[in-house]
């Protein structure tokens, strides 16, 4: 491995300004990830030409591939900066913000659209008033196992970045929301809002916009079976449409 690492970072001073590429050279250390490289630049924000510059802005939280905050384009592919090792990347390493979301500054993007989709589909389990009713219903083990896989979603946005149907010309909410809906429907308490959630994904930006490209399941850093959720919900929404039609 080379003793010096070059990072070419696509920078943007604010949401309205033009973007530009700025290159940095840092010293290589064993077992570095992209976040540690960015931290080195933060400590000494001097670009490749030796000029002092502004610190690079990015988002991060857990640093263990759980929060999804550090998603960015790494050598042209969406991924997590905390779990991407420098030694496995070709140089120069190119870092860019995900294009699906509005840029806040540099590598930081605004993922509000994802959380708005979760609000639309009520992707939570309503427990108000049930705490005093005793132990809740148990999930069957096979159902619990499949639900656990869906619960790994960290709303990182990688599946939206990889999906060809998520673009400025489409209202598609993106693949992640269908696993969120399937997870909540599978819950014994969450099932009581099943119809309401199905109706929402049958509407604008819902499941009919999916073209089954399967890019989402290929790119998901958690290996979530997103296309399985979409297939299950296709069947459930079809049945719900018949029920609506026949009253």
UniProtKB/TrEMBL annotation:
What cofactors are annotated for this protein? Answer: [4Fe-4S] cluster; [3Fe-4S] cluster; [2Fe-2S] cluster
Question: EC number(s) of the enzyme?
Answer: 1.3.5.1
Protein's organism: Salibacterium salarium
Enzyme kind, highest EC tier: oxidoreductase
* Segment forming the signal sequence: none
Q: Which InterPro entries match?
A: 2Fe-2S_ferredoxin-like_sf, 4Fe4S_Fe-S-bd, 4Fe4S_Fe_S_CS, Beta-grasp_dom_sf, Helical_ferredxn, SDH/FRD_Iron-Sulfur, Succ_DH/fum_Rdtase_Fe-S, Succ_DH/fum_Rdtase_N
Please cite one Gene Ontology biological process associated with this protein: respiratory electron transport chain
Q: Which gene encodes it?
A: sdhB
Q: Which family does it belong to?
A: Belongs to the succinate dehydrogenase/fumarate reductase iron-sulfur protein family.
GO MF entries: 2 iron, 2 sulfur cluster binding; 3 iron, 4 sulfur cluster binding; 4 iron, 4 sulfur cluster binding; electron transfer activity; metal ion binding; succinate dehydrogenase (quinone) activity
What are the leading ranks of the lineage?
Bacteria, Bacillati, Bacillota, Bacilli, Bacillales
PANTHER family of this UniProt entry? SUCCINATE DEHYDROGENASE [UBIQUINONE] IRON-SULFUR SUBUNIT, MITOCHONDRIAL (PTHR11921:SF29), SUCCINATE DEHYDROGENASE IRON-SULFUR PROTEIN (PTHR11921)
Q: Which residues belong to any copy of the 4Fe-4S ferredoxin-type domain?
A: 144-176
Protein name, as recorded: succinate dehydrogenase
What keywords were assigned to this record? Answer: 2Fe-2S, 3Fe-4S, 4Fe-4S, Iron, Iron-sulfur, Metal-binding, Oxidoreductase, Tricarboxylic acid cycle
């Amino acid at each position: 491995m080379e003793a010096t690492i070059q990072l070419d970072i696509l920078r943007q001073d604010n949401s309205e300004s033009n973007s530009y590429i700025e290159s940095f050279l840092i010293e290589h250390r064993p077992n570095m990830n992209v976040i540690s490289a960015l931290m080195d630049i933060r400590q000494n924000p001097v670009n490749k030409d030796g000029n002092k510059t502004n610190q690079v802005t990015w988002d991060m939280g857990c640093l263990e591939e759980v929060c999804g905050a550090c998603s960015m384009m790494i050598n042209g592919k969406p991924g997590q900066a905390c779990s991407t090792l420098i030694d496995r990347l070709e140089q120069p390493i190119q870092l860019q913000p995900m294009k699906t979301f509005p840029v806040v500054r540099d590598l930081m993007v605004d993922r509000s659209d994802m959380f708005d989709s979760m609000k639309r589909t009520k992707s939570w389990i309503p427990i108000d008033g049930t705490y005093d009713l005793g132990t809740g219903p148990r999930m069957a083990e096979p159902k619990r196992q499949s639900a656990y896989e869906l619960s790994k979603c960290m709303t990182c946005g990688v599946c939206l970045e990889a999906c060809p149907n998520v673009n400025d010309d489409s209202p598609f909410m993106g693949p992640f929301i269908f696993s969120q809906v399937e997870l909540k429907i599978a819950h014994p308490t969450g099932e009581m809002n099943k119809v309401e959630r199905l109706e929402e994904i049958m509407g604008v930006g819902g499941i009919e916009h999916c073209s089954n490209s399967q890019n989402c399941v290929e790119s998901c850093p958690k290996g979530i079976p997103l296309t399985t959720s979409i297939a299950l919900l296709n069947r459930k929404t079809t049945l719900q449409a018949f029920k609506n039609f026949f009253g």
